[in-house]
Design brief:
402 residues, five-stranded parallel beta sheet, binds adenosine-5'-triphosphate, 19 helices, single chain, Rossmann fold, Helicase, Ruva Protein, domain 3, alpha/beta
């Protein structure tokens, strides 16, 4: 028995719902490739909304071959060049044209993967076939060169009605008993991810061939998003590591934010100096790990970080505090964090200049950028020319004139 996501995978453009504009753009890009200004399309959007599926459907409809490379399979420049490079330069045996799909390039955004991204950028330049890149987040500064060389095409999260339509069809095909309202409820809860919704439907009906209100409620209960305040409450008020460890599993705040929330509220909760010292010790270790992740992409550290900031913090106290604390969002820390975001902008601009001038990013930040910034503020013509030359975004221009 095939899983629903495979059995009902889309094949034709008409099977894909709710992405009409994006698909039209993408199809036009491929069909009319000769007349495109850019040699690649950069398809982006969250998981399970039809990015990969659309590329396949379009290829199908236009009768094109697809050369698909999942980016997580390539680790170095040679691999990129041998996988794609050869395909690019040796035309198809029967002169059938093709699409080159580099799927999920977020997988190669690490610092050590720079070479790969550069190799891709180079391939894009002289290339007789349309190249399609996909990623969840195209805005990473590592992708700036690729973004500039590509036509950006957004796949938005799906509205619940298109998802409902997909689920309805499956129900009818499988003879799954259901009420439309409950099915709509199911369609709503995955936040626009069709694949997740299809999987949920399968899980809930696999034994009974029926979608009941009760099973849907249980599912919602299991995956309910938890507020960060609740998560803090769990960690701070228990001394049981097992209770604490899952605290952040269902919060929407990311790791950086979790760290800030704990940091901000810890001293209001833990009053004994010894407890506080222990807890901050755990937190600082988590912070070190988190930096290592950012620097070296050591994602396996995530698991330690989570243990440290949940169970670790929970068992840092001898006994629980019974006082009432109103946990607050991060004020001062949030500002620090924003400052860091700004310095990221600086780095992104410096990167663009470094690329054009073949110099080091560090050197640019120190020696060139301050002068450019002054000139940028004072001289309108210079401002316009530089903005165009570096293709500065609105935020980057704002940073330059601040
Ligand atoms: N817009 C859609 N219309 C119909 N079915 C869809 C749609 N989006 C996703 N699906 C279903 O979900 C499956 C997965 O979609 P797809 O592989 O295109 O996701 P994706 O956007 O590439 O996600 P990821 O970023 O996780 O790779 C499809 O095979 C199809 O069954
Ligand atoms: Mg995909």
């Amino acid at each position: 028995m095939l899983p629903f996501t495979i059995k009902y995978r889309t094949r034709k453009i008409n099977d894909i719902v709710g992405q009409d504009i994006a698909i039209k753009k993408l199809k036009n890009f491929v069909a009319d490739f000769k007349r495109q200004r850019k040699n690649a399309a950069f398809v982006y959007g969250p998981s399970g909304v039809g990015k990969t599926a659309s590329v396949h459907a379009i290829a199908n409809e236009l009768n094109l071959e697809i050369l698909e490379v999942n980016a997580s399979d390539v680790r170095n420049t040679e691999q990129i060049n041998s996988l794609i490079g050869s395909a690019v330069f040796q035309r198809s045996l029967f002169f059938r044209s093709k699409i080159i799909l580099l799927d999920e390039i977020d997988g190669i955004s690490g610092a050590e993967d720079r070479g790969c991204l550069q190799a891709i950028a180079k391939l894009i330049e002289k290339n007789p076939f349309p190249i399609i890149l996909t990623a969840a987040n195209p805005w990473s500064h590592n992708f700036s060169a690729l973004r500039r060389k590509s036509e950006l095409i957004e796949f938005a999260p799906l509205d619940y009605l298109p998802i409902f339509k997909i689920l309805k069809k499956i129900c009818e095909n499988e003879g799954i008993k259901h009420e439309d309202d409950i099915l709509k409820g199911l369609a709503r809860r995955t936040g626009g991810d069709a694949r997740a919704a299809i999987n949920d439907l399968e899980t809930l009906t696999i034994d009974t061939k029926e979608l009941t209100k009760k099973s849907l409620e249980e599912l919602s209960e299991r995956n309910k998003e938890e507020s960060i305040i609740n998560a803090l409450f769990k960690i701070f008020k228990t001394t049981d590591a097992n209770v604490a460890i899952t605290a952040f599993d269902n919060v929407k705040e990311n790791l950086d934010e979790q760290l800030l929330w704990i940091d901000e509220n810890l001293p209001y909760e833990y009053k004994k100096p010894e407890d506080l010292a222990n807890a901050y010790d755990k937190l600082s270790k988590a912070d070190i790990f988190s930096r290592r992740i950012k620097r070296w992409q050591h994602y396996r550290f995530l698991i330690y970080i989570n243990a440290l900031i949940t169970a670790g913090i929970a068992v840092s106290k001898k006994e629980r505090y019974y006082h009432h604390v109103q946990y607050k969002p991060t004020g001062k820390l949030l500002k620090l964090w924003w400052a860091k975001q700004k310095s990221m902008k600086k780095k992104a601009i410096a990167e663009k200049i470094a690329e054009k001038t073949h110099s080091s990013i560090k050197g640019i930040i120190k020696d060139t950028l301050p002068y450019l910034q002054e000139a940028f503020k004072r001289n309108k013509k210079f401002r316009e020319e530089l903005t165009e030359e570096l293709e500065l975004s609105r935020e980057e221009v704002e940073w330059m004139v601040k």
